[in-house]
Amino acid sequence: MATSPQDNIFSLPNLMLQITQHQLLVLITGLAAICILLYLLCRRKARIYLLDFTCYRAPDSYRIPMSMFLEHVFLDNQFDPDSIAFQMKILEKSGFSGETCVPPSLSQLPIRKSLSFAKEEATTVIFSVVENLLKENNINPQSIDILILNSSVFSPTPSLSAMIVSKFRMRSNIKSFNLSGMGCSAGIVSVGLAKDLMRVHQSSLALIVSTEVLNLNWYTGKIRSMLLPQCLFRMGGAAILMSSRNEDRKTAKYELKHLVRTTKAQDDQSYACVFQDADLEDKTGVSISKSILKVAGDALKANMISLGPLVLPISEQFWYGMSIVCQHVQISSKASIYMPNFRKAFEHFCIHAGGRAVIQAMEKNLQLRINDVEASKMTLHRFGNTSSSSVWYELCYIEAKGRMRRGDRVWQISFGSGFKCNSAVWICINTPEPKVANAWRDRIHSYPVDLPDIVKIS
Length: 458
Fold this sequence. Notes:
It contains 13 helices and eleven strands. With 458 residues, the protein is α/β, with parallel strands linked by helices.
């Protein structure tokens, strides 16, 4: 049927109305998409706070002075003269005091190695630091949302994290994680995992426990590289309480600013640098290669390349970049890579107390002052290498000395098997008050002590 001109006249406004409604719908949809995009881009990530931490201090009865250690080595018929001489050489240059501790099972003759003794050692340290931390901060275990435990060479079933949940009757829906096999750098790995989880599950409380269990890997064979760890590692652990709740900023000690993880496991030398194995007599231990300083240096360099742009002033980044350009274009045959001054980015350094040679290499390569490595050297002197918890003993030392102030920046640097180098950067947001229960408070007045530098151990 034909349409009249009048019908066409009346259909034009209808068509215009339809077009206008369509355009309006597109406009509203577009604005909504833009608003959502702007919200996602501008939404502030949850801030991550460090509320408090505690470090384990063993009773005096657990101490193993050098004289006692050497006596055990001499009286233990499993060691040959060369093994005895090697351990004496390492201990003489270790920088240890008579305060370092081992569990009772390893201070007896003969030593007692078993799963039950390893569990006893684990519970002694873990339950102590967790109980002290929760009690000092008046935290109900039921309020913990995330639990992360790291222990490298001891991973029983049920897990150590499940053991904590059972002991303290935590919630059934707690997010519990147990990290193993990640070496001395696992403490910073745990912090990184907690950070990621708390940004997803906002307004959460996270409890981290970092420790190492010595019993089952206390080596009694003849391989030198496997004898080295028992000369360096000692009993210790730390519990750390973190939060992403806004209201905790008023009482928190620190805020996490950056966390950078670097792994070199794709390199064969790095991968085999620290290795758990059994010798020809089927005795289990952890082998530390002579190449560890070179491997650690390479991992540190890679880590600093990622961390530097996040923390260094523009001037330091400029001179570093210029030195690379000069070397690349060979402007001068004597041109070398400029080492940025990290003291312009941090007031405090917590370098993993893996050994005196490692600390001295860091001191030299980063051009640090004696005061910058004091916490690391004194931690090694009093507590030995406590693995992943060592950086917390160092932070504890700085607090006990009353040196931490609001606005101060802290660089925690850890190294571990794999090989890994991890960094955590904190800023102090509330000046910590000295604690009577601090792991250092009983003898902090005696530190620092003079420790002569050492030469490279062959």
